[in-house]
Each structure stands twice: as C-alpha cells, then as structure tokens.
Predict the structure.
Amino acid sequence: MKLAEALAIVTKAPVEAKAMPVVLACGFTPLHLQNYLAAYLQQAHPDRKVSIETGLFGDVAGTIARFAKGQTALGALALEWQDLDPRLGYRQTGGWGQRLVPSYLGSVQERLKQLEGAIGEIPSASRLVISTPTLSLPPAFHTSGWQASEAEIALELAVAEFASRVVAHPAVSLVNRDRLQSASPSASRYDFRSDLNTGFPYTQGHAEALGSTFAKLLQLPQPKKGLITDLDDTLWLGLVGEIGHQEVAWDLASHAQIHGLYQQMLRAFAEQGVLVAIASKNSPEVVEKALARTDLILDRERVFPLEVHWDVKSGSVNRILKTWNISADSVVFIDDSPMELAEVQAQHPGLECILFPKGDYAAGFAFLKRLRDLFGKPRLSEEDSFRLQSIRQGQQFAELSRTGSANDLLASAEAVLTVEFSGHSADRRTVELVNKTNQFNLNGRRFTEAEWLESLAGPGSFVMAVLYEDKFGPLGKIAAVRGQRIANGLIIDAWVLSCRAFSRQIEHQMLAQLFSEFAVDELRFDYAATSKNQPITEFLTGLLGQAPSAECRLSQAEFAAKCPELHHRVVVKHE
Amino acid sequence: MNNTEDKLTSIFETVFPDLPVDKIRLATQETTPNWDSVAAITLMNLIEEEFGFQMDFDDLGELTSFEKIRAYIDGKVEQSAA
C-alpha cells in the first residue's frame, strides 16, 4: 500500500462512526507507522473511525503505563534499541566505544524491567501487540559487522527473555520476527536520512509491513475450525485403489515427504481442537487398510467423519458439515484435483478450497505456512480439546434419539449444568464463544473484550455462563447470556449456545435459571435475524407462538406453559 | 492546469482533507492551520512517492506554499529531463 493510499483510507473514514481508539507506543516520531496502522485497521473496520493515540517522544514505558490505566483497550508497542538505550541509536553521539559497551546491558535490562512492570498492569481484557527491535544494533561494537560480539548477543538475549516473559500476559501478542522478515527484509528497514532529519527511523516499506502486522494481530481473525482432506496424492502419495495400501507413501525416502509433513500438521491441528475429516472417492475397505498402517502419522482416532465412497465430493462435504454442525466458511477443503475442488466450491461457495501442491516444492512450503495462518489460534483453551469428543457424543445422541424417545435419553444422560453468574467479568472464553457462535446467537453481534467489559459497567448488568457435562463426557463452556436487570424483568442483549450442545434442552434450562435467579416475570430479547441464526429463531418462535421481533418479550407464564420436563442437575455459582 | 498541478492538488487533498479544493492552489503554511512539521514531512514523502525523486530536507524550510512547491517540482522535473 502506498502512503497516499493509506492516508486516503484514513481521511475517508466515516466521521460519525463509533470511535476505535488505538494507542501506539514508540520512542521515535510515529509518523508513517501511525498512518499505516490506522489505514490497515480502518480497512478492516470500515464501519468504525480508527484513531491512533501516540505518547511522548522517547517515553515508551510512560505511554504503556498510561495505556494500562486508560480507557483505550487496543495498543501497539514498536520497540527499538534506541528506546532501551539512546546510545544504541543514531540521533545521539558520545555513546559508542569499548569502554561504554559493558554499560549497555545494564541500561537495557533496566528499561526492559520498567517496561515489563508497566505491561504487567495492563488489564487482561485489553490487547497489546509488541514488536521487539526490528532494526539492527548500531556499529558500536569491536567486531566487524560479519561477526556477532558477545555484547550484542547479551543484548539480544535480554530482549528475548523479556519477550518470553511478557508474552505470557493474556493481553499480549508478539510479532513473529521471522514472518516480519519475509515481508520486510532487515536490509530494507532503516531509513538513515529520515531518522536523522525527522526522528522516524523506518523506510516506508518497513512502516507498512509493521503497521499491517500490528493491525492483523489487533484484529484477531477467527481461525478456521475444520479441515476436510482428500486421500490419494494428498494425505499420501499414490492411488491406494491402484497400488494397494502398502505402496502409498508419505516418507522422505519415497520422495513423498510433503504428504508426511501434511499428515504431521493435521495431527497437530487435531490436537489443538481443529476438526479433521476425510472426503475420498475410494473403496472403504481399501482405505481402512491404509489408515490402519502403524506408520500413519495422522492419528486415525482424531479423524471424524470419514466419507469414503464413489459419490460426488460436494455431497460428502455436505454430510461432514452437517455432522460437525459448522458453516462452510469455517472450513477448509484440500484436494489434489482442480476438478474436485471446482465441483465442491460450486456447491459450497463459502468453503476455502485449496489445491494440494503435488510435485512443487516451493508451493508445498508455502502451503504449510498458509495452513498455519488459517488455523492458528492466539491461545489454546480446554474447550479446544473437547470439540471432537462432543461431536462424537452428538452423533451418539442422534443415534440414540432415533432408537428411543429423546426424553428418555436426556433423563438417562446424567447431565450436569454448571451455571456461573458474574457482574463484570470479561472472561476471554465467554467473549470468544459469543463471537464465534453463529447459529444459536440472539443477534449476531460481535464484541471486543473491552467492549464486552464496558457494556457490563451499567447497573444491574450480568453475565451467565454455562458449562455442561454428562455421562458421555464434558463439553466445557458452551453457552452464555448477557443481560441487564430492569424493573421486574431482564433485558437480554447477547445469548449464544454452541452448536456442539444442541438437542440437550440447555436453552430451556438457561431461561428457567434466569427466571429463578432474578425472580422476574418477564424477559426481553434484543433479537435480530441474521443469515445464520435460524436455530434460535425457531426456538423463540416455539416459545412465543410467533416469529420473534426486536425487543420481543417472554413472560414466565408463557415459558412455564411451553417448557418441557428438564433433567439436568444444576449447580449455580456466583462470582 | 498542468499535470504537476493536478498531482500536487491531489496530494494536498490527502494531507489537508479539511482544505476546500478551490483554496488548495492558494494554500500557504500561514493560512493552512494543519500545516505543521508532520504535515510538511508527509507532503514531502508523498511528493517523493508521486514524482519519483528525492527531496532535500534543507529545501523544506522554503517550501511554504502550494505555488512554491509546484515551482520546486517543475524545477526538479526539468533538471532530471536535462
């Protein structure tokens, strides 16, 4: 993006839109880093008015300390060596030489300690993106430029140790130095002329790369939830139906390492809660033999479901999405056949379809990195490990429902609902759940953690979070309600229930708990139809006897008349 | 209106979005409230990006109006063509 384009994006932001303030902490003149950060954020949030607040020149720790205590929830810290010791920059003289080198480390450690203290005060609901020094150390050391001196290594170690400590803070994300390097090579980052004349040390290219990286990390796009893979020439090299299960390969010696690496990646994804399924045109018995091979890297038990037959792949994808109960835009489909990809894409336009890179090493390498970007999560939660288990349970539930009455099934499920009420909590998992739930979602509204927290500041505001467990195992935190108490009623403005927990009457139990906890006669729902929230629309229609409208109301008497017999054991907790 | 004027007008529109278009060609540092040091450097970087030459920071102090900047750019363009 050219500077002119960046400025145009910023100046064209809607003036009346809701403000999106972001603090940019840097010891140098923020100039075009500020412009690019604003432009990339503005581009990603066209309905908001992004504004960048900067601190005092040279006072990074002070800016972070003010950020920690202030109202702004989003921040970016561009740290450079000169912020840690001005002698490590070019705008001050009299600080180089062997006599002074030993004192650099003490000075840098002292500044890092101050900074760490300020970062430690940041509320966990905020978000701070940090880049550790992106520019090289100056030529202040006794070795030639080709040789790293002990003093330089010690300084880099001090910064690395600082980074490893601050990244444990729930509000902090760290820029990946390697990825930044590919977007902005080291040699093209520093602008000597600009640094000396304006105090802004970055080339425009580097300012753009860093601004765009900050914006990406501040936005936190939702990672994909599921991956559907083909088998032949994708999960392994060769056509299993042609050459037999013993001959398909995924190892280095068979020049099939990309398939082994792909399996390894899928295994890692599955362990972090990504759903993995197979869609293959093959004979099931042949595939079973291949998947039973002991040298298979992908964990067979973590793959569910398997669609192996000769029908069209879009049908397989359809059934897999139905089993997972997630929408196509949360899923990636990988196949080595452009024709299969086109057929699936035509039926599922929201699905991300990726060609498996056969015989192209550069494309193979890029493919692995792309998969990391698509499925990468800032942090793993306990619920991630429950996901596949709960889908399998859902299948069991569905099968048992077909053979007996749903009520008998629920009565024998030994379900325990833990209902947690809190007044002003911004539990990350709850906000995450609200933001990624589409189907049973009252109005589809998304929140940053700070916005969520802000909305709970009003009198009578509350959050009810629900955890579920039954004899089939735990599902973790699966539902949340946010609301506000008013005279003899509650206004519910956010309500979500994970699709993993459908068909268990949890939604009924939640309403029952709200009526009993607050002893109110009426619930008002801030409902809005979205393209995906049919399940909650149908549920409310059933209770209200008509399609829900904005601010629809449900009385306790209406609810009691429609509520089925509930079998959960409920444990209520208060914050 | 020549090509330099068009391009420079567009740059001024970007840097000074509050300045009415019909006032741009008459703009001076004194009459334009937001024409501070940051705006001057931004103008300089946009001119470099648009016209493809590097400006001298020492010249910046003299470039205090739209007209002076236009003349400066014309001079630079002629120099590089010669």
Observations:
- The mean pLDDT of chain B is 90.
